[in-house]
From TrEMBL:
Record has Disulfide bond as a keyword: no
The name this protein goes by in its record: Cytochrome C and Quinol oxidase polypeptide I
Transmembrane feature ranges: 12-33, 53-75, 87-105, 111-129, 149-168, 188-207, 219-238, 244-263, 284-308, 320-342, 354-378, 384-404
Keywords attached to this entry: Membrane, Transmembrane, Transmembrane helix
Native source organism of the sequence: Sphingobacterium wenxiniae
Keyword Plastid: no
Length: 414
């Protein structure tokens, strides 16, 4: 086992990440089935905790760690990880599997809390080593800023978890306090760690492919400055919300929208140079991801209306649709596309078909969640929505199985 870990290539580590995404998909499918069938042996709340925690630790964070190490160490698909990162990645995987099992069996019990705490401590360790090595990497300064900021938000987001623990210990876990703590963690994971890592990795790939950096330091610092104020979008329902802070929030969402529009425009200007280097299938997927990010910022801009913000952030189906938009449509599809571009996923016509099934499943899932959420807001029941969600989840699972099953195809070059 230890010899396998020592010889495991970057491609194989990412293969484990895709397998973990498959597990996340299977748990999602199981939860959708439980809505339709009794399945008395499965606790829906426990499954939800296992699903969400493993999606963060076993899929997204694991994949981002692999990509960031590739970027700062200049690794290729068949290279092995440096020993210190190998230890962190293996430890994070073990802790993530521990969370998956313990949350499934007992929910928020002792073992689940222990494994969750371990993943947080390991994220601190990864951030420490990575920040040190980023400065030595030789990457352009702006790309270094994006990756360091992502690591900062990875650590900063843990304050939401610690606040939740404090509220539980001091018995101040009122619903609004709990929501504020959970949204703090989610905001700085989604809009900090996840988003900044993906943008940094996109800039890295563009730089490797064209020799150009499409983002200025001013754009970066403007975007960075928006992240903390944007958190208050999710807590506009606070009593006596200051008027000056509301103005800051409104300005923030508009600035974010302008910055992303500028980044999209700068990226599209390089399309003639990228035609030979960007896989046609991935080009389509990434165009969709770019539009999804634009939609995300548009939705944030719309939510500055206090009444709408209170309605949306307090209504579970809408929150679930938004979280899936970011985690599946934006982050997951971008990472799968990046893996193809960096040859961490072997790609040919057979893989393309299965990847399209994954993409269609993700988009179908988001469509049904959105329609279901809007239907709930207007108090209109959508017949067959739960069954359609099962089909969407099934498509994702089947597609991922197909992608993984074709990775050993001998016809595919390394």
């Amino acid at each position: 086992m230890w010899q396998f870990i020592q010889k495991c290539s970057v491609r194989q580590w990412f293969g484990i990440a895709v397998f973990n995404l498959l597990i996340v998909g299977c748990f999602g499918l199981l939860m959708r089935l439980k809505v339709i069938f009794p399945l008395a042996w499965a606790n829906q709340k426990f499954l939800l905790h296992a699903h969400s925690h493993f999606a963060f630790g076993g899929w997204v964070s694991h994949a981002l760690m692999i990509f960031i190490v590739m970027a700062i160490c200049g690794l290729k698909a068949n290279d092995v990880l440096p020993p210190r990162y190998r230890f962190i990645v293996v430890s994070n995987l073990l802790a993530s599997y521990g969370m998956l099992i313990s949350f499934t069996l007992q929910g928020y019990g002792l073992y689940a809390i222990i494994f969750s705490t371990l993943t947080i401590l390991l994220s601190f360790t990864f951030a420490w080593f990575s920040c040190r090595d980023i400065g030595r990497s030789g990457l352009p300064k702006v790309i270094q800023y994006w990756l360091k900021a992502a690591l900062f938000f990875l650590v900063f987001s843990s304050l939401g978890t610690f606040a939740l623990v404090y509220l539980m210990v001091t018995k101040q876990l009122a619903p609004l306090n709990q929501l504020a703590s959970v949204y703090f963690y989610l905001h700085f994971q989604y809009n900090g760690w996840f988003l900044f890592s993906c943008i940094g990795l996109l800039l890295y790939w563009l730089y490797q492919s064209t020799g150009k950096v499409i983002c200025s330091k001013q754009l970066f610092w403007s975007f960075f400055a928006c992240v903390v104020p944007a958190y208050f979008l999710s807590v506009l329902w606070w009593k006596a919300f200051p008027q000056w802070l509301y103005v800051v929030v409104v300005i923030t969402v508009l600035v974010q929208l302008l910055i992303w529009t500028s980044l999209m425009r700068n990226t599209l200007r390089l399309r003639s140079q990228l035609l030979e280097k960007l896989n046609p299938t991935i080009r389509i997927i990434w165009y969709g991801v770019m539009l999804a990010v634009f939609l995300k910022f548009m939705l944030q801009a719309a939510s500055v209306v206090p009444a709408l913000s209170k309605l949306v952030y307090g209504y579970r189906p809408i929150v679930i649709a938004y979280l899936h938009l970011v985690l599946l449509v934006i982050v997951s599809l971008f990472l799968l596309g990046l893996a193809v571009q960096l040859q961490l996923l072997r790609f040919h016509n057979g893989v393309k078909i299965w990847l399209y099934i994954v993409v269609l499943g993700v988009l179908f899932n988001e469509l049904i969640l959105t329609v279901q959420g809007i239907g709930g807001l207007v108090r209109s029941y959508i017949p067959g929505a739960n069954q359609l969600l099962v089909i969407a989840s099934g498509m994702i699972v089947v597609g991922l199985v197909g992608v993984l099953s074709r990775q050993r195809d001998k016809k595919i070059p390394s």
